[in-house]
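Self-study notes.
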Amino acid sequence: MHKVLSLDVSSTTIGWSLISESEGLIKVIKHGHIKPPKSDLSLARRALKSQYLLKSLIKDLKPDSVAIEEYVTKFSKGRSTAKTIVVLSVFNEAMTMACIEELDKDPDRLSVLSIRSLISKTFDEKITSKEECFEFIKKIPSFTVNLNKKNEIKKETYDEADAVAVGISSIIRSNNGKRFTLQ
C-alpha cells in the first residue's frame, strides 16, 4: 500500500488529505486542514509556524510521499495581485521545504489543469471547474463534507476536497495507464 499526503496550500488554510492506493483501489484515509497563524505576524513567521504544523502532521501520518497543488505562476486577470503571488509562493515553498526535511523527498507538484484532466480521463467525468471537481470529490464514500452551525458547507471543506483531488491525481500520474476505483 502506498500512502500520499496531499496538500492544497494557501496562507489562510492548508487543506490536507492522506490517501492510500493498493491494487487499483484509492481510499481517502483522513482529511483535514491546518490554519496558519493570522496575519498579525510577519510573512516569514507565519510560514515558519505553518512549517512546524506540517512537520508534526507528517510525523503523525507517516506518508510515503507528498503531493502539492502548484501555486499560480501567472497573473489571472482580476484574481491575482503581485502580493498574492508572493504570499502564495512563500507558503508553498515553505511547505515544500518541510516535506523535504521530514521525508527527504521533493513533493510531486501538480497544476490545477493537470488535476482536472487526470481525474476527468481516469473516471470518465467532465471536470473543467473548481465546482465540478468539488462535486466529484463529494461523491467519494470516504470523504466527509463538514457543515457549520448554519448547516452550510464549511469553507475549509473545499480546501480539503482540493487536497483530495491533488492526491488522487498524483496517484494516477505515478501509475500511468492504470485503472482505479474510488473507495
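Second protein, same conventions, sequence then structure:
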Amino acid sequence: MKKVLFLLGELNDDDIDWLLQAGTRQEIAAGTVLIKEGKPIDALYILLTGTFIVSIAELDNREIARLSSGEVVGEMSFLDNRLPSATVQAIEDSLVLSIPRREIAKKLQLDIGFAYGFYRGLATILSNRLRRIVSQLGDVKAQALTEAGVDDAVLATSENINLASIRFDWILRRLIDG
C-alpha cells in the first residue's frame, strides 16, 4: 500500500506542484544509507522507485521492515524534531523526492490549507503504522481487524484516494520520465 496516498489525498494540486518545486529528485545507489539512526536529517523523503530496508542498532542492525514506492520516510523526525530511530538503506538503485525540512517549515507557517492537509496526511500515515505494530505485537482484536482489511478499508473510504493515486502517478511520470 502506498502511504503517500494518505498525504497526497489531503493536499490540492497547487500543493503537489509546490512539493515538486521545493523538492529534489535524488538517485540513490544500492547500498546507500538514506537515513542513519541517531544522525540528524534535513529532509522528508517520498520513495518513488526501488526498495529500502529499515534496521535498528538495538536489534544488531537486523532488518525490521522493507519500504518501496509510495512510502514517506523521515516524517517522525520532522514532526517531533528528534533524531531518527532507525536506519533506512537502499538495497537496489532507487529514486526519491527529497523535500528540505526548512522549506516545508516555511510553507507550513505561510499556508494554513497546506498545513492542515500535510499534518492530517502524516497523522493518518502514523496512525495506520501504529495499528499495524499493535497487531504485530499480538493484540488479538487488532490482528482480527488487520486481517479483515482495516488498512484497505481506510484507503477505500478515503474520498480522495483515487485523486491521490492519480497524483502519485503524475509525480512519477514527471520525475522519472522527465
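Instructor comment on the second fold: DSSP finds eight helices and eight strands in the chain.
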